[in-house]
Amino acid sequence: MQVDTPGMTMDETEDKTSKPRRRGIYLLPNLFTTGTLFAGFYGIVASIDGHFQPAAIAIFVAGLLDGMDGRLARLTNTESEFGKQYDSLADMVAFGMAPAIIVYQWGLKALGEYGWAWGKLGWLAAFLYAVAAALRLARFNVTAKTADRRFFEGLPSPSAAGLVASMVWVASGLGVGGLPTLAVVMALTILAGALMVSRLAYWSFKGLSPRGRVSFAYVLIIPLIFVLIAIDPPRVLFFLASTYALSGIVIALWRRWRRQSGRLRRSERSLPDE
Q: Does residue 1 form part of some domain?
């Protein structure tokens, strides 16, 4: 049964009902996402100009803003498909391209002074990191709805970026250099990329809610971390980033040990009694 709208023709009624609703672009969460993009862009420009410590700090600022935009969108009920795609593109710049360019400008480019092969390995390591970040973000976008919220699959790109940025921050502050140091930096850059595309499980901390109950230890640990960061930001941040990056390996080894122990106990129970 068709009902005509008074004052409107049939064609106008059909056009009005069949016209898709406009998808909203919400201002507040996307401002934070734009801040993430700007921080990554600033890190790239600062590293090109030779200001590596501000460039590294910009990556951590991007990480803070990136952690706020999604939570803000959920709190204000302003989540949108546009925001998700925009956030992913901003993350690629801030946590994929920016760390790769920063570490290349600081040290990997200097590997060319030790021979043609070292120079090629330097820019290849930076490129592999950028590719790994892109693959990690694409995989997250595809599996986000079905993945276990308690864990990330692979090292999150902001954590990998924090590892690379804090490494550059510490090294530039100490003024270290030379082939051995640059070789270690190159290896850690490749390792960060490999951990991003790995299947290792990393705790997501999404189980911690401001409204939920936590143990008293968390109340003491969190302020202590901020105090330590304030005392020596680059070293403490590098330690925290390294610890989190290694935690995925520790979790994998622990799960493997539990599986092997379970098989051993089952096989012992299945043995006939003498």
A: no
Percent of the chain clearing pLDDT 70 (strictly above) = 81
Alpha helices in the chain (DSSP H): 10-18, 27-48, 52-75, 81-92, 98-106, 116-143, 157-174, 179-196, 216-231, 233-270
Average pLDDT over residues 221-246: 90
Domain count, the chain: 1
User: pLDDT tens across 112-151, in order?
Assistant: 899 889 989 999 999 999 999 999 999 988 887 766 677 8
Q: For residue 270, is it within any domain?
A: no
Encode pLDDT of 79-98 as tens digits.
Answer: 788 888 999 999 999 999 99
102/118 Cα distance (integer angstroms): 18
Which tokens sit at 263? 């098989």
CA dist 4 and 164 (Å) reads 64
- Asked whether residue 38 is assigned to any structural domain, the reply reads yes
pTM: 0.82
DSSP at 96: I
The per-residue DSSP string of 55-71 comes to HHHHHHHHHHHHHHHHH
Residues facing residue 194 across a β-bridge: none
Residue 131 domain-assigned (yes or no) = yes
**Which tokens hold the place of 262?**
């379970």
Helix axes 27-48, 81-92, angle to 10 degrees: 10
Other beta carbons within 10 Å of 126 = 25
User: Domain with 130 in it: what CATH number?
Assistant: 1.20.120.1760
Q: How many whole angstroms separate alpha carbon 192 and alpha carbon 205?
A: 20
Query: Among candidates 35, 93, 25, 41, which has minimal Cα distance to 69?
Result: 35
**How many whole angstroms separate alpha carbon 210 and alpha carbon 251?**
26
Its domain, for residue 88, covers: 26-204+214-264
